[in-house]
């Protein structure tokens, strides 16, 4: 299938710093910008590169999909990078996302437990696979049920709290329960893709233990959609 990077046109807005100290750098990643460089020279512009231009000690800890915006944390030395990596690996980092999905979700909250694996012939897409997939868990809470529009009969705004960090987890899980995220180039049907100018998924907040002070730190970024 065609790469979603075929028309890569990253936003030119300046780096938005949400929090910084001697150990951490927390940024607000814009939608449309890669987290790390792509394989092609045309895809060299990314959040990691931009961060290193301003903070030469910035080190990668995790990633967000190109189309996803929001809170993005980086370490400022190798020790902190290892510490944060273990927090992610041991599921000690709490992540909260905001999404707008197609359709009205009837229940106020729920839990999705569907294993995921790469859909290799259609990569980078992922898929549910109950035999070979890795465990993936997403908790969701309805925030608002939006009225119908000419583009879509109904939309639900949801808060998503993943317990695991599989590739495209939130996007595939919401599609799997019949509520694909608006503007999703990979998983939304044409009318849901066309209903928004960008993927309606935002990393709203992240909570972790500060690797130096050991205090609980929460950093958030308001969504632009």
Structure overview:
- There is one protein chain.
- By secondary structure, the protein is α+β, with helices and mostly antiparallel strands.
- 14% of the residues lie in helices and 32% in strands.
- It is built from 4 helices and 12 strands; from the N terminus they run ββαββαββββββααββ.
- It has helices at 47-54, 78-89, 169-176, 190-193, and strands at 17-20, 24-29, 59-60, 69-75, 94-102, 109-113, 116-118, 126-128, 137-146, 155-162, 201-209, 216-220.
- Strands 1, 2, 3, 4, 5, 6, 9, 10, 11 and 12 form a 10-stranded mixed sheet that branches.
- The longest helix has 12 residues, at 78-89.
- The radius of gyration is 17 Å and the shape is globular.
List keywords for this structure.
32% strand; 4 helices; ten-stranded mixed β-sheet; two-stranded antiparallel ribbon; 225 residues; alpha+beta; globular
Task: Please summarize what this structure is.
14% of the residues lie in helices and 32% in strands. The protein has 225 residues and is α+β, with helices and mostly antiparallel strands. A hairpin with a 6-residue loop joins strand 11 and strand 12.
Give the terminus-to-terminus CA distance. 28 Å
Contiguous helical run count: 4
Largest sheet: 10 strands, mixed
Shape: globular
User: Runs with pLDDT <50, length 5+?
Assistant: none
Radius of gyration: 17 Å
Relative strand content: 25-35%
**Helix-and-strand structural type:** alpha+beta
Counted beta strands: 12
**What is the arithmetic mean of pLDDT?**
95
Instruction: Please write the string of helix (H) and strand (E) elements.
Output: EEHEEHEEEEEEHHEE
| Amount of helix | 10-25%
């Amino acid at each position: 299938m065609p790469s979603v990077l075929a028309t890569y046109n990253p936003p030119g807005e300046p780096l938005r710093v949400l929090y910084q100290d001697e150990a951490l750098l927390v940024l607000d990643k814009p939608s449309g910008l890669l987290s790390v460089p792509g394989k092609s020279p045309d895809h060299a512009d990314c959040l990691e590169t931009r961060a290193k231009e301003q903070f030469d000690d910035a080190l990668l800890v995790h990633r967000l999909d190109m189309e996803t915006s929001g809170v993005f944390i980086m370490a400022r030395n190798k020790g902190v990078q290892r510490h944060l990596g273990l927090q992610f690996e041991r599921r000690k980092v709490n992540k909260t996302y905001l999404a707008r999905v197609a359709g009205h979700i009837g229940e106020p909250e729920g839990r999705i437990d569907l294993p995921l694996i790469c859909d290799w012939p259609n990569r980078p897409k992922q898929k549910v696979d109950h035999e070979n997939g890795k465990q993936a868990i997403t908790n969701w809470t309805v925030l608002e049920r939006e009225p119908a529009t000419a583009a879509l009969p109904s939309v639900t705004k949801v808060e998503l709290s993943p317990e695991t960090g599989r590739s495209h987890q939130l996007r595939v899980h919401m599609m799997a329960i019949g509520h694909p995220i608006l503007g999703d180039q990979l998983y939304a049907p044409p009318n849901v893709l066309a209903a928004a100018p960008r993927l309606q998924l935002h990393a709203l907040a992240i909570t972790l233990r500060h690797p130096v002070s050991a205090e609980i730190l929460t950093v958030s970024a308001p969504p632009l959609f």
